[in-house]
Amino acid sequence: MSLLSVRDLAVDFRIDEATTLRAVKGISFDIDERSTVALVGESGSGKSVTALAIMGLLPRENARVHPASRVEYLGRKLLELPGRELQALRGAEISMIFQEPMSSLNPVFTVGFQIAEVLRQHRALPASQARLRALQLLGEVGLAEPQARLGAYPFQLSGGEQQRVMIAMAIACEPKLLIADEPTTALDVTVQRQILELIAGLQARRRMSVLFITHDLSLVSEIADQVLVMRHGEIREQGPAEQIFSAPQDPYTRALLACRPPLDRRPQRLPVIDDFMGGTGPKPGERPRGLRGDEPIILEARGLAKSFYFRDGLFGRRELKAVRGASFKLARGKTLGVVGESGSGKTTVGLLLMRLHKASGGEVLFEGRDLLPLTPQAAYPYKRRIQIVFQNPYASLNPRFTVGQILMEPMHIHGVGSGEAERRALSLELLDKVGLAADSFAKYPHEFSGGQRQRVAIARALTLRPEVLICDESVSALDVSVQAQLLNLLQDLQDEYAMSYLFISHDLAVVRYMADQVMVMKDGEIVEIAGPDEIYSSPKHPYTRLLLSSMPGRAQ
């Protein structure tokens, strides 16, 4: 029996007085009772707009649902319901897990208060009963120490814990339909696995239906009954999950499946959407990876350590050992992949190498010279030779600078180029190299998508022609097609300039594809270092085996 029926849903957004954008173009689908439907597509495909239209949460000032659109929930026409009736339905019978929990949770209220508020609003429970039920819900979603977490604020929780709180709020009133909008984006594979299993377990116990929205087809292979593939506001293909994965009919579906780095081989170049939509298909050839053992070492860490200190009580001080005696080598022209969960020390290692954190101990040898004790003046020349691409391009690019200013500023500081004309020419050359048009030079960061901003960040790092590039989750949370383009770009740059990469990521498939050697970190320690094929075929450490078993398609 159909729980939700969507027919000819079309949504327009008013850009300005004369321009209207149709974000969703007359799509139709059904969600049966006790089923999971996956809505898959890239950013801008219309997935989230579809979910917001169903929930009645589109912005009134510039969004308009076409009059011919119909959305029925158990026979009730949602698009025609008065605001008060729709508000009563939301949260009680239809709930939504939003993509970014830190933006969705109120930072000034405790977790317990926010869950209890849902129960008071929709179930009219007194405060004491609502608090008790909130405690039970935190336990049900698998949050450790639920009693302590009840009084915590969102910023005191990790990303995975915040997402569990969002799920607890969404299921508080036992809805019949749960809409999960990218609930695992940018989460570690182990946390991702836990969230997927949590949603599946809740669905089985509560007999609810799930609309699971994601940009990653491989993620839904184990949980979905039906799959809808969207592009540019249209449904390109839909059908049973088994059929979609075994015999995709639409070229776009085949492209989404092929853009992810495969686990059984290492193609010379990852295919991108245009390879399939243009009819050419993926290019042949394999890319060799690994170390012979006699490569020259450009960067070496010996016993690298970092501790952070926090107040504990009135006079006490608590120590957090973020990195504990890390030792590793980076070969010239090669890639060292660093994997581990959030809090494992991956990013801290990268920041220590850049001297953006002051190390508590150890050495960082660049071509044999220890960088850590150098004065700022003595370390200055090395800043040109070691660069970093941060995880979040929204935060790492100055919003008041044009792209041209962003690219030319490092060249000004380090004296690259003989004048403005040469620096401008180099900037335009780099924009072309990272796949951005020349007119990007005069634009501001807010005019670009996340993938395009990351290209700008990579171009900025390349302005100084570094010998070592630290990529800190630089392709996380990107669409698989954009991710493939950036990975191909990084490979091309390494081939051309013989750059060495420290490639930090929680995406194990990407690391296997990119790395010549893989370093696994847990709780600030290196637990295993080996070649990518050895790590993935015969991991030695239990934690490495846990990470690998959590990958989509590799659950044990």
Describe what this molecule looks like in 3D:
With about 550 residues, this protein is α/β, with parallel strands linked by helices. The mean pLDDT is about 90. The chain is built from 21 helices and 21 strands. Strand 12 and strand 13 form a beta hairpin. The two termini are about 35 Å apart. The strands form four sheets. Strands 7-8-9-3-10-11 form a six-stranded mixed beta sheet, with helices on both faces. It has a six-stranded mixed beta sheet with strand order 17-18-19-14-20-21, sandwiched between helices.
TL;DR?
The protein is α/β, with parallel strands linked by helices and 556 residues long.
| Shape descriptor | globular
Note the total helix count. 21
| Uncertain segments | none
User: Numbering strands along the chain, what is their spatial order in the largest sheet?
Assistant: 7-8-9-3-10-11
Q: Structural class of the secondary elements?
A: alpha/beta
Average of the residue pLDDT scores: 90
Backbone CA Rg: 25 Å
The total strand number stands at: 21
Compute the separation of the termini in Å.
Answer: 33 Å
